[in-house]
Amino acid sequence: MTRTHAIAVIPGDGIGPEVVREGLRVLERVAAVEGFAVRLTRYPFGAEHYLKTQEVLPDAAFDEIKGHDAILLGAIGDPRIAVGYLEFGIIARLRFGLDLFVNLRPVKLYAEHLCPLKDKRPEDVDFVVVRENTEDAYAGMYGHFKKGTPDEIATQEILFTRKGTERVVRYAFDLARRRAKGKKLTLVDKANAVRAMDLWTRVFEEVGREYPDIAREHAYIDAATMWCVKNPEWFDTVVTSNMFGDILTDLAAMIQGGLGVAASGNIHPGRVSLFEPIHGSAPKYAGKNVANPVATIMAVSMLLDYLGEARAATRIEETVAGLLRSKRIPSLSSDSGLSTSQVGDLVLAALEDAPVPR
Ligand code: IPM
Ligand code: MG
Question: Which top class of enzyme applies to this chain (predicted)?
């Protein structure tokens, strides 16, 4: 019997539906080539749906989504709606509600000409950031006192739990062990100023003792942004807190060619996990068929890898890498000269010829 994967699809706002459309074409074709099946359930959540129905993400839909093997999400965010409202109601709800404690963000340069850094080649930009995904300032413990007055006080708690820190650090050590490259894990924090991060320092040290084969390194977040630009080859696997990971990975996306290629997985090993491009909904490009779908196609590759379809994942990755190296996809921005669907066509046409080890 063929393997079937149940996938919930939330195209979302702005360019989301267009890039997801191409991601799904690639998903269906690669399934046919590799001989497995996918069962897709589409969900309409996002700004349009909210404006029509006042629904953000109803409990019944949340429970149904939970019953899938994985989720593919396009983008959420719309200028007509209050900042953060849908982002928190949908993205954060799924991250927290499904306890997706790892935000996995590979940083890989596929073709030298895509890198804005001088003299950096694909072998210099190849690392992965493991961002904690359920704690920190994102836990949403904030408040205002005397709001709107000159004496207003605004607070937001940065919180870390022992359990939350330990599980993500352990995931990162395991990942460092599986990666072929450096067998090195770098902890990025700000323990010199955010003293609560002493918890990260201790957990990293303690868990690290169980992984004597993995070299441990450390960088403060400010220095890490400098290294990311100056010596990206220094990094192999990086583990960091939610907010620092958010910031570091936008910077890191630029050195791999931009947000047009950067994908991510929101993961709880063994449970339904969510995959998405790092970029946002880019409302100004919505509906024009100009947004580059490569990041979403790479998110599909990560999703398949997570579901155990390693060959299909590699097939997609190698296809995209080949098209970028040969400049048949000349750039990753919306002015590449290729439409969203043309990029999809190129990937579909090249999929079968991708070099995939048997
Ligand atoms: C990301 C985004 C989100 C985040 C926003 C949309 C809430 O920037 O996935 O990196 O901050 O996590
Ligand atoms: Mg971000």
Answer: oxidoreductase
Give this prediction's pTM. Answer: 0.96
Residues with CB under 5 A from ligand 2 (ion): 246
Q: Which residue's alpha carbon is nearest to atom 4 within ligand 1?
A: 246
How many beta carbons lie within 10 A of that of residue 275, not counting itself? 27
- pLDDT tens digits, 234-292: 999 999 999 999 999 999 999 999 999 999 999 999 999 999 999 999 999 999 999 99
Per the annotation, the verdict on 126 as an active-site residue is no
Q: Is the CB of 78 under 6 A from ligand 1?
A: no
Contact present, 106 and 130 (Cβ < 8 Å)? no
Q: How far are the Cα atoms of 57, 197, 274 from residue 92, in angstroms, in the given order? A: 11, 23, 11
Q: What is the residue with the minimal CA distance to atom 6 of ligand 1?
A: 87
Catalytic residue among 222, 288, 327, 353: 222
Amino acid letter for position 238: V
Read off the pLDDT of residues 111-125 as tens digits, 9 standing for 90 and up. Answer: 999 999 999 999 999
